[in-house]
Predict the 3D structure of the following.
Amino acid sequence: MNDKVDFLDFQKKFQEQYGIIDQDMAKIRKIHILTFRTAEDGRILSRLSTGGIVFRHKETGMNINSGETWVCEVIERNTTFFATGLLKLDAKFFFDLRSDQVEELASIVWEKNRSILEPRFEEMYLAQMREKLDEKLSESKKREEEANSRVEELKREIEALNIKNKMVIAAMESELAALKEKKTTETHAPPSESQVNIEERYFANVHPKIRRIGPDEIFSEDFRHRNYFVHISADQSAMTIRPHDQGTVVCVDKKITLNGLGIISPYSGPTDMPAEYNPKYGAYLVMIKYSASIISGDI
Amino acid sequence: MALLSENSNDRVMIFVDLQNVIRSVETMGTMRLNFDFYAMAMYLTGTRNLVGAYVFDTRMPFGVEDRLRRFHDKLRYLGFRVIAREAYDENRKEQKEVDVALACELVAHAFKDNYDVAILVSGDRDFIPAIQHAQSSGKRVEVAAFANSVSEEMRRSVDRFHELEKMPLLQMTSTTEEEQ
């Protein structure tokens, strides 16, 4: 900002632009923007663009201090000028400007000082850009490292799964081979009489539908025999029903009456009872209360 | 998963402390349903080979009314070997000699190699020394008992423990007790 604003030139343009008459212009020409400083002898003064020295008016200009810039009315006395401060150009002045005035001011400042400002701004911009790029680069590197470690982790998981799968496949293959061998043996050797008797003659349906139809009564289409042995576990969770000629429970019309069932398991309307053929007991195993050990057959 | 697998060729011998089982069933309050000893022996044996089933109890002297005599006969009819000692302390309401008789039988059969697996049906920890002797002679000993009548020490001593309360062993009937 070495080039100062040519205020006289500005005034001339102003007069032409707004068609101000010369009489008024004489008054306007007395207006100057001056920056005051302290001289070697201690007096506060400024200098006009034409070279004239301007002192503070002793009555109306003493509020001007060194280092301040003022819009002044300058009066000429012989070869000396005296300034009366009209408006102090400080931060407050600029803050009070309207936005359009700010823009106008900024554009003037920019146009006048473009050659100086441009490289400075460019330098600042480049520095900022470099900083941002560095940040982004470090972020990208971090993300890349994370992705790489995740890839390694997944590779290890895949490797472990592959090993596990191979083991499972090997186990299944050996199981399959054993089953095939067993099947071949079974094909050659007919099933024993007892197996046929138990599983086919008595328990044609391995998943019988047993229904509770009363407090002490159960019903099933699979109750085809007259006598049954019915046992219950002491923890009252499971019951076995086994057809037997000497069974103590009599089946009538596919219904079995069990004395005390209503006390063991309170009746709350007709319900299906989960049941299946259990080879360990050689009987239908009916779950009265759910118990994991019953399901897994650990009884 | 059991460490020791069941082998169909294993010779199994069952030793039942009758009063211990009856007391446990009564304690559980299961409506006085009959405990099926035959089914218990079958389920405990599984696919293995049952070579003997002993039941140990007391009996009254000849001429004195014994309410358990018929029950002992029924067990004998089913195939159990009932060993009833004539030694019951009427004043203290407790049986004598029975535990020792069972322990002697368990150990003697082990030493004679008459079984591979002994199944003791009792939760009484008095049998632990006998169990250890049988085990030391290379026999496997399993215990079947109700959870309410077995000590933790007993569970730790044996090779396998069967929870009787989870086995369907209480026999149900169509008729009431009065009708029977």
